[in-house]
């Protein structure tokens, strides 16, 4: 039982920054993906965009802001 309580506390503690700073984190993801796209001269744009989208979806789920937009 204590393990379950500890796990919940750790999970909630980890979600705090995602809730509080989610917009800034997403801005950082966008900036990083743009830099990666520039460095690869657009050769991997699709993969970079897909990875960024997945990371943003995960962030939104973790922060409880998942709106089910499907994008």
Question: Could you give the topology of this structure?
Answer:
Elements: H1 2-39, H2 45-63
Helix pairs in contact: 1-2
Determine the mean pLDDT: 84
Q: Structural class, judged by helices and strands?
A: mainly alpha
Radius of gyration: 15 Å
Shape: elongated
The SSE string, one letter per element, is HH
Residue share in β-strands: under 5%
What is the end-to-end distance?
38 Å
Ranges with pLDDT <50 over ≥5 residues? Answer: none
Q: How many DSSP helices?
A: 2
Largest sheet: none
Extended strand count: 0
The helix content is over 70%
Oligomeric state: single chain
Overview features:
71 residues, mainly alpha, 2 helices, elongated
Brief account:
By secondary structure, the protein is mainly α. It contains two helices and no strands.
How would you characterize this protein structure?
With 71 residues, this protein is an all-alpha fold. The chain contains two helices and no strands. The protein has helices at 2-39, 45-63. α1 packs antiparallel against α2 (45-63). The N and C termini lie far apart (38 Å).
């Amino acid at each position: 039982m204590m393990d379950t309580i500890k796990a919940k506390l750790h999970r909630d503690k980890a979600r705090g920054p995602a809730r509080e700073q989610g917009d800034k984190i997403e801005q950082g993801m966008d900036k990083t993906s743009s830099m990666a796209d520039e460095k690869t001269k657009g050769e991997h744009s699709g993969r970079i965009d897909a990875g960024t989208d997945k990371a943003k979806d995960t962030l939104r789920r973790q922060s409880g802001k998942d709106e089910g937009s499907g994008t």
